[in-house]
Amino acid sequence: MKDTRYTVVGAGLAGSLMSILLARQGGQVRLVEQRSDPRRGSKMAGKSINLAVSHRGLHALEQVGLRQEILDQATPMRGRMIHAAAGTLTFQPYGTKAGHAIHSVSRGTLNRAIIQAAGREPGVELEFDCVCRDVDLDSATVTVQDRSAPEVRHLQADAIVGADGAFSVIRSRLQRTDRFDYQQSYLTHGYKELTIPATSSGGFALEAHALHIWPRGGLMMIALPNQDGSFTCTLFWPFTGAGSFNALTTPAQVMDFFGRVFPDAVPLIPDLADQYLASSTNSLVTVRSRPWNHGGRVVLVGDACHAVVPFYGQGANASFEDCVLLDQAMRDHPDDRAAAFSAYSAERSPHTDALADLAIANFVEMRDATASRLFRGRKRLERVLHRLAPGLFIPLYSMVTFTSIPYGEAVRQARRQWRTVILLAALVGLAVLMVLIWILVFILRGM
Ligand SMILES: Cc1cc2nc3c(=O)[nH]c(=O)nc-3n(C[C@H](O)[C@H](O)[C@H](O)COP(=O)(O)OP(=O)(O)OC[C@H]3O[C@@H](n4cnc5c(N)ncnc54)[C@H](O)[C@@H]3O)c2cc1C
Asked: What is the pLDDT of residue 1?
């Protein structure tokens, strides 16, 4: 792979990390990004202001020496803080070990740090304000246009990495090739972001080391801490119908709705109605596709091949993990890029499909079940079972969030574990029943 010329399209989280990994294999990388250079002070406008980074993402960042730098700028969240409608708070730990936490970090900070690291890499050349318009798959040529110039340029390379997000130009070209599978679906819910500012003394208005959830059945609000004492809140509400984004169009409606549904949040956001009405409403898409490569010429990473809804906090983590797995596949097939890309696509895509299902299922769990006693009881039981048999029972959330077990395997293992627990419970129940019958028979015989 040495001296291979790559064009990486998209300097988001996946594209900038992948560029570093390719350069470290000896590749010559040209990274093109439609936005302006965040190192020059421009903000990487993004879909969400902060993200939860966990084991998979941190492991990938470690490969390029960025793990500690990112952790230093992140706020650990050790569990969910559930805000009931009546105002009561319940804390549910995320992990099974004392150190288990997910880390809230600003998306801009994270992306800038990886771009800075890519910029320091001798084999990486960065081009910002450069929009990819089209791609010729067979010759690995992308057509780009600089924002300041009307003419287009054709950039030819040995291979292209499509890291241009959920609405990828590179993937849309692959979609027109024979036997390419593609599926896209939107949730009936969208999202809007608000900010809870720091207190007047610069502190946190809520518990800092938790991900706050206001579950309200068909809708919910969450809040993640930022290092400056503020929280980024995200409303996940339906687009239409009662209690939807479309239903609230005036300051009075907004204040009335929040006063009824999220009363404890109202005093924390002084300009609530203004923020709500100014904040854009965004949609939530799931993308599944296969295969992620075109021979040894083109390969996809991140949301470009598998956008997932954000309810497992795994989209960015999975995108980072893609980069590590693609890097490994290329090391495993040093003389055959097509074999490397095909192996990566074939082995990885079933797992991101499993993640897509998990993420949708977790939406229902977060907005509804987290408030229920049954859910809290199940989580407690999971922790007890893990403590009793740590090698045999690991909660699914822990496998997804605190290990690198492939997503699909984690789902299968979780099912196996519950089957075993149910079987054991049934056997114990049967044994108890038999003992009781035996005692009864013994007593009756003695009479
Ligand atoms: C509300 C919300 C909350 C989320 N929270 C979490 C979370 O807590 N944890 C988590 O792990 N994940 C989370 N995610 C998911 C995460 O944001 C994505 O999975 C992640 O950003 C994917 O990274 P990427 O690099 O593949 O794509 P992107 O981050 O979308 O980057 C794509 C890049 O390509 C550039 N680009 C696009 N088209 C072109 C073009 N034609 N030419 C040049 N450049 C182009 C874009 O400007 C962008 O910089 C969340 C997502 C949402 C929507």
From this structure: 67
The finding on whether 313 has its CB within 6 A of some atom of ligand 1 is yes
In a domain, 88, yes or no: no
Going by C-alpha positions, the residue among 277, 276, 283 that lies closest to residue 262 is 276
One domain for residues 116 and 145: yes
pLDDT digits (tens, 9 = 90+) for 181-231: 999 999 999 999 999 999 999 999 999 999 999 999 889 999 999 999 999
- Among the listed ranges 17-31, 41-55, 120-134, which one has the minimum average pLDDT value? 41-55
Which among 352, 348, 339, 337 has a CA at the least distance from the CA of 303?
A: 352
275: three-class secondary structure by DSSP: helix
| Same domain as 199, residue 177 | no
Q: How far is the CA of 233 from the centre of ligand 1 (A)?
A: 18
What CATH number does residue 26 fall under? 3.50.50.60
Residue 284 Cα: closest atom of ligand 1: 53
Taking residue 346's Cβ as centre, other Cβ atoms within 10 Å add up to 14
Query: For ligand 1, is residue 137 a contact (CB within 6 Å)?
Result: no
pTM beyond 0.90, yes or no: yes
Residues 16, 165 share a domain:
yes
Atom of ligand 1 nearest to the CA of 301: 26
Give distance in angstroms: CA of 171 to centre of ligand 1. Answer: 15
User: Of 226, 251, 283, which residue sits at a domain end?
Assistant: 283
Give dist(CA 307, CA 165) in Å, integer. Answer: 8
Shared-domain flag, residues 234 and 327: no
Confidence of residue 47 (pLDDT cuts 50, 70, 90): very low
DSSP E strands in 291-429: the ranges are 293-294, 298-300
Ligand 1 near 211 CB (within 6 A): no
Mean pLDDT of the chain: 94
Looking at the structure, tell me whether residues 293 and 272 fall in a common domain: no
Question: Does residue 174 belong to any structural domain of this protein?
Answer: yes
Counting residues of the chain whose pLDDT is more than 70, the rounded percentage is: 98
Is residue 201 helix, strand or coil? coil
- Kindly state if the Cβ of 316 falls inside 6 Å of ligand 1: yes
Residue to mutate (ligand 1; options 47, 144, 226, 234; most atoms within 8 A of CB): 47
Residues 144, 195, single domain; the answer is no
In a shared domain, residues 422 and 315: no
Q: How many domains, in total, are found in the chain? A: 3
Q: Left (φ > 0), alpha (ψ -120 to 50) or beta: where does 426 sit?
A: alpha
Domain range for 218: 186-283
